[in-house]
Amino acid sequence: MSVFAYATRRLILLVFMLLAVSIITFTLSRIVPGDPARLMAGMNAKAEQVENMRERLGLDRPLPEQYLRYMGDLVRGDLGISLLNSRPVSENLRHFFPATLELAGVAFILAVLIGVPLGVISAVKRNTWLDHTSRLAALVGLGFPTFWLGIVLILIFFFYLDWLPGGQRVDIAVNLNRKAPPITNLILVDALITGDWALMQSGIKHLILPAITLAIAPMARFTRFTRGVMLEEMSKGYVNTARSKGLHNRTVIMRHVMRNAFIPTVTIMGLAIGFMLSGSVLVETIFNWPGIGQYAYDAVFNLDYPAILGTTLLVTVVFMMVNLAVDILYVFLDPRIEYR
Prior knowledge:
Layout: H1 3-31, H2 36-41, H3 47-57, H4 63-75, H5 89-124, H6 129-143, H7 146-160, H8 172-176, H9 187-194, H10 197-234, H11 237-244, H12 249-278, H13 281-286, H14 292-301, H15 305-333
């Protein structure tokens, strides 16, 4: 099967996956305790006002009819109106998602640049102090709860040392004095496009603590996983054969072992990207980061049905597309792999 045919089949499956996710999320959002009509009308609203609000939101109709109406709007690209701020959900997602994308992207780069080399060094220097140190660091990184680590970093670097900001994406004064309005809503990208170096500096400073907090756990996983697959590859016969032919150990590691070990490592990287994009709600809440995680938290807390559904569908699409990209990348890493 060609790459195009495989990608087409996966995209078709994505449609059915989104349908299943929408049904599950729609049902769960309707059976949780609480009344969004009461929240929208106000806690002191009269029963008649609440009922009018329920009719206006379409919550007085049977669940199947509500779902069919929602799907009809979704096919036309309408994710509905957020009950929280009365703005289109699609507009909210375009506003909040770039913040999460930027945070998760920087955290992922940190995790890869530090975690993978540590895993390689740990495997090559097995049972040395470097190996023991990297394994201990990975174990500690996995053991730290994300919320605890974020709070500790804020206490140390913001409250005590006053080196780094403890929240938000950029200083308020810098944001007010931007050279140009937002283009992509990615602070670093917009600063690079417009040449706004004050915005760039402020954006980097605000990214450091939340990115480190989000990167620690996947960094530790990358270290442990890379070490494991490297040791497995180094125990295979082709390594001894390559060495017996006179190849330098560094050449064997770089050209043969790492290339084969990188294939399963890419899989865990793809999963990490999806989880970092969808699971950043704790980090965004701690650092008051205006991203999709914070938006989803507010939506659940306020029973904002359209926002909950829109966020869930967006995360599902991103997760599936990342995994599709990883599967396609396999062919370039190992041409022997065939799609079926």
